[in-house]
Design brief:
The complex is a heterodimer of chains A (108) and B (382).
Chain A: H1 3-15, E1 20-24, E2 30-31, E3 46-50, E4 54-63, E5 66-73, E6 77-83, E7 94-100, E8 103-107
Antiparallel strand pairs in A: 1-2, 1-3, 4-5, 4-7, 5-6, 7-8
Chain B: E1 2-10, H1 17-32, E2 41-44, H2 60-68, E3 74-77, H3 84-99, E4 104-111, H4 112-117, H5 138-141, H6 150-164, H7 168-185, H8 196-201, E5 204-206, E6 209-210, E7 217-226, E8 237-245, H9 261-264, H10 269-273, E9 277-280, H11 285-294, H12 303-309, H13 325-329, E10 331-332, H14 337-348, E11 361-368, E12 374-381
Parallel strand pairs in B: 2-3, 2-4, 7-10, 9-11
Antiparallel strand pairs in B: 1-7, 4-7, 5-6, 8-12, 11-12
The chains are: A mainly beta (108), B alpha/beta (382).
Chain lengths: 108, 382
């Protein structure tokens, strides 16, 4: 899998309201930000998998009336995203993923 | 050893970055008592947007040498953000010791006001230009509302608050004490007494960080001339040194509250505890706290107690950011490393208005780059 293929598969996942991540079959490391080799062990034995889409807020900040956060997922990776302000954000609070314009957002 | 050092810092400078850089250089040459033709090495850094708004300059260090009229035998540009100048000092000492060069010029700065006016931050500057990408992951990052480095440090401060109970008041107390140092230093850009309430009632820019705990980018350059002899100055050199580079996006760090300062300071923790003054990078209040923890000065979670009982003034039990830090001096071109080094040299040479008595060593820690990926720790002394 090269980098462009990864982005193209990610796009398909997003279009189907699924959150993808990459798992290294050699060392088990999970990551979200695309590379064609595992940043932990260098292996190219990587696969794209589907996350449960339920994570928790690792940290957040309210800026310009929007909430910017790092969210942890149980599959062992984290990513940046905006989360909606329906509920009060807090470190450790559960969020669910939703998709707007082909982009993942969190909802708490 | 440092033979000459100077700054040219303005809130908003009406001339070009090139004029400004020449002003700092001329002052440093005067102090060192040397000519431009004596400069044998040149080290600088380029940060997009800060050279008269340029996102890019072709062969940047070479362009500067040509403009300044210097002909060094060694030219380099370091790309570690805030601590670049500190890493430059280390490399300059090596060039003198092992390559036999003399008079290495470290020239760092630019015009922060130009980026400021765009209402973007230095890391979000890419949003102004099509075809400019700051990171390989831009596709998955753009479109969101972040403004690094501000949002990045806000995330750290928020988590620190939750996990270690570091209250807004604790961070505010540090800002009050640093302002007092700034007032006493006689060269602070932001002056006047402030209270904990003043900090807490200033606008929350990116929660939990308030306006008065965020550095203000200004226009300015610093020039340092590193030489075989100290000239008229004290023979100050690097006594202990470490640098660390953690090239990771914060979501991929094991823990965002731990910085590479924990690695760059690892080999001389005991010596750090016995320094006479401390100059710690202060892009935000939380930045200082992280370095106090990661260099072993305090334990994680003890900052509240520490800042309540510690006198950080130049006559106090632990002189810290004695010039007021860059929070009060202003941050030339989004990089504070030079502000720390300049204040350290004032103190070590007995040139400070709020002089630390009997000072023989200063611990400096710089942190910066994309997120918090680079750290330089050093003890300066003679």
């Amino acid at each position: 899998m090269n980098e462009m293929e990864i982005y193209s598969i990610y796009k398909d996942y997003f279009a189907n309201s699924m959150l993808p991540y990459i798992k290294c079959k050699n060392c088990d490391y999970s990551f979200y930000y695309p590379r064609n080799r595992c940043p932990q062990c260098g292996s190219d034995k990587i696969e794209i998998k589907k996350s449960s889409g339920t994570g928790e807020i690792y940290s957040y900040t309210v800026f310009n009336n929007s909430i910017w956060a790092i969210v942890s997922f149980p599959e062992g990776f984290r990513l940046y995203m905006n989360i909606d302000s329906a509920g009060e954000p807090d470190v450790g609070k559960k969020i669910k993923i939703k998709f707007i314009d082909g982009r993942p957002y969190g909802s708490c | 050893m440092i033979k000459g050092f100077a700054e040219a810092v303005y809130k908003k400078y009406d001339g070009t970055a090139y004029d400004l850089m020449n002003e700092a250089l001329e002052k440093a040459l005067n102090m060192a008592g040397i000519q431009r033709s004596d400069i044998q090495g040149f080290i600088t850094t380029f940060l997009p947007g800060i050279f008269d708004g340029n996102i890019f300059l072709h062969f940047f260090p070479d362009q500067l040498c040509g403009y300044l009229g210097i002909n060094p035998k060694y030219i380099d540009s370091l790309d570690y953000g805030g601590p670049s100048v500190l890493a430059g000092l280390y490399r300059a000492e090596k060039l003198i010791k092992y390559e036999g060069l003399d008079n290495i010029l470290l020239l760092f700065g630019g015009k922060g006001s130009l980026v400021r006016q765009t209402r973007e931050t230095v890391d979000s500057y890419e949003n102004l230009y099509d075809g400019v990408t700051n990171t390989p992951y831009k596709q998955l990052l753009s479109g969101y509302s972040y403004k690094n480095p501000l949002s990045d440090y806000a995330l750290v401060a928020q988590r620190h608050k939750k996990i270690y109970g570091t209250a807004d008041e604790d961070r505010a107390r540090l800002m009050v004490k640093q302002r007092k140092n700034g007032n006493d230093s006689g060269y602070s850009m932001f002056t006047g007494d402030i209270s904990v309430d003043d900090v807490l009632s200033s606008p929350v820019i990116s929660s939990p960080l308030h306006l008065l705990e965020i550095v203000y980018p200004v226009d300015g350059f610093h020039a340092f001339i590193v030489s075989k002899s100290p000239g008229k100055l004290r023979p100050v050199k690097i006594k202990k040194y470490g640098e660390a580079h953690w090239s990771k996006l914060p979501p991929e760090l094991e823990e965002i509250m731990i910085t590479p300062a924990s690695e760059s300071s690892r080999n001389f923790r005991d010596e750090i505890k016995h320094c006479d003054a401390y100059e710690l990078y202060d892009s935000f209040s939380i930045t200082v706290i992280l370095q106090l923890e990661d260099t072993g000065i305090i334990k994680k979670g003890e900052f509240g107690k520490f800042i309540e009982k510690t006198d950080i003034s130049s006559s106090g039990d632990m002189p810290l950011n004695t010039g007021g830090g860059s929070i009060n001096r202003g941050q030339p071109a989004y990089m504070s490393g030079s502000v720390l080094l300049y204040e350290s040299l004032l103190q070590l040479n007995g040139m400070a208005k709020n002089q630390v008595r009997d000072i023989n060593s200063v611990f400096i820690n710089g942190i910066g780059g994309w997120s918090r990926n680079h750290s330089v720790s050093m003890i300066l002394g003679d």
